[in-house]
Amino acid sequence: MKVIIVGAGAIGAHLADLFSKIKQDIVIIDDDEEKLERIQADCDLMTIHSSPSTPIQALRDAGIRRADLFIAVTRDENLNLSLCVLARSMGARQTVAKVENAEFVEPQIIEAFKAAGISSVIYPDNLAALDIINGLKLTWVRQRWDVYGGLLTLLGIKVRETCEILDKPFKEIFKPDSPYHVVTIKRGDDTIMPSGNDMLKTGDYVYFMTTREFIPNMKRIMGKEDYPDVKNVFIVGGGKTAVRVVNMLPQGMRAKIFENDTRRCEELIDLVDTDRVMVINADGRSVANLQEENIKSAQAFIALTGNAEANILACLTAKQLGVRKTIAMIENMDYMDIAGNVDIGTIINKQALTASHIYQLLLNGDVRNIRNLMAVNADVAEFTAYPRSRITRHKVRDLDLPPEIELGGLVRNGVGLLVNGETQIQPDDVVVVFCHGTDISRIEKYFI
Questions:
Q1: How confident is the model at residue 134 (pLDDT cuts 50, 70, 90)?
Q2: What confidence tier does 284 reach under pLDDT thresholds 50, 70, 90?
Q3: Are strands 300-303 and 325-329 parallel, antiparallel or unpaired?
């Protein structure tokens, strides 16, 4: 497929890297030659040095008439929207615009954009806020991914010595009717696709697939019962993501936002519900400031400044002060491994979230809700089985799936079910597919 990306910033570079790895025909356009040179050094693609504000000839040179997907991710949201309309009129099959205005993702506005030729509008801060809110609902879980409205759930959990199933072979623990199973394990730098002889070790980062009603049992099995529910949240950094988070807080949660900039604090007061949210003009990385605001009353701490190092250090400080749930926004991909190794808690990366949403537009089958699990170099997604598709012809054990692909569960007639070797997938089942270290499009042929 042919993909044209306008904007070689952080998101554009990440998309270029992702799409080039799966052997797509990529063209990236930007007016910064240094950025283009860095991307071209790492990716197999074509670059065009041109100003996005004068795009006609550049789009023609890029082959816009043959483009399957056009993505505009410059810093100017109005330019992104205009470019998508133009690209569609010049022949692009699908168009995606990155925006920075929350109003642009309201349902009626999205419909107007679609009528104008913009297939999808993506607001990265909103994606990040949704991920954060989802994480606040289970303080003992590092990562949570809900399937089909939560009928199935993928839980990423750090294994501690309190885990009930520690050092026990999976073949002794898991039976065909078990209400949960291990999808993958991160141990040190290695990712393990588990077999019957594998077992959990202290320090592992493990992904479980389970059903909604069994989540409380998972908390007990993993020895996490001492983790409290979130009532009070401390947030460092008062940017757009912070505003989205506090305006989405579930009933019963309250928040304090620490922001250094006095003018931004004044703006925040007009943007948040001050009955539930307190804006504090202070440095949230300061131990003294945190203690003065009673950090011990907080069950969750979220670092959302634009500085990755500051967010990592802030979360480490909060952990030392007794906060169990910490979340750090890490925009610099170079810091992802560091953040994981220092055990700061949940990591939010807007580039990866944005890429996951765009990536599914490349796939031909009925696929949605793609999520990249950066910790284990894997993707997980929901595929719908069509009548007569290959996935429905045999039991799972006889499908001859590649070893790096696993089916975690399925939703059938509104009921979440786990998958095992004896499962027979039926037409219209929504199937959770897990792909480690490979292009998720490799599973498409089983569903179309």
A1: confident
A2: very high
A3: parallel
